[in-house]
Design a protein that fits this description.
Elements (H helix, E strand, L loop, with lengths): L1 E11 L6 H8 L14 E12 L2 E12 L6 H7 L5 E7 L3 H5 L1 H11 L5 E6 L13 H15 L5 E3 L8 H22 L1
Parallel strand pairs: 1-3, 1-4, 4-5, 5-6
Antiparallel strand pairs: 2-3
Length: 189
Amino acid sequence: MSYIAHLKVVLIGDGGVGKTSIAHRYLRKGFTYEYKQTIGVDVYSKRSDINIKDYKVSISWVIWDLAGQPKFREVRKDFYKGAKGAILVFDISRRETFENTLNWANEFLHNAGRYPVVLVGNKVDLRDQTKDPVSTEEGQHMSKTLSKIFNTKVPYIESSALLRINIDKIFEEIGKLILSKAFEKRRKK
């Protein structure tokens, strides 16, 4: 059996953590070393297929890449409407972006609701070049903390947009979480 799903997902996290690079890699737009700050929001679309349980689901993604700078906080509120999930990204080479993940989780919870989240530690290619990188264990511990906040499992995935590590896995994981929740609701009716 096959289904078509239309899913809005937001990419959230501090500025410069690689949200746009992750989106571009997923959309097969390549990688650029030049940092360009997102102003407000960038919106992308893509169609992909995933298998969940005994179903093949064709997903029509609408990916909202939200600006991470504090000055855009007020503007972001409206961008969460209709989101069915979030990809919360931090930069493993910049500890302060990791420390801000709880703020981002609370912002998503407050503005969108209790929807699935995937925690992503990006830029793992910089781990050996960084004085005090966020460890895999710290990322896993944060995912457990977020799981308690959201009352559902929040997976932790490490990625590198530069090296294209785990980019597809991030979207496959959030897609499966969102669709599993939707199938569960449908069964209860």
